[in-house]
Design goal:
Distance between the termini: 61 Å
Strand content: 35-45%
Strand order of the largest sheet: 2-1-7-4-5
Largest sheet: 5 strands, mixed
Length: 80
């Protein structure tokens, strides 16, 4: 009986929201969309220790398990 390879997923966090993704390379836009954000109105920022690295929408990143991202809103601020 052949073993079937199971896809492993890794947890990452975008604005403290846990998202499970397959290991690999993603653009900042793809990660924003997975978090339910609009890439034209937001910027993805990678938290590395106490430092923040802003990512361009077409910039690629290979998230590690537990990677933490922050979303900066660049579009117009909604008025309530």
């Amino acid at each position: 009986m052949a073993k079937t390879k199971t896809l492993k997923v890794i947890p990452i966090f975008i604005d403290k929201q846990k998202i499970e993704i397959e290991p690999g390379t993603y653009t900042a836009s793809e990660l924003l969309e997975m978090a339910g954000e609009n890439p034209t109105e937001t910027t993805l920022v990678l938290r590395v220790g106490n430092d923040l690295k802003q990512l361009a929408n077409d910039e690629t990143v290979e998230p590690k398990p537990g990677s933490q991202f922050v979303v900066f809103h660049t579009g117009p601020t909604p008025v309530s």
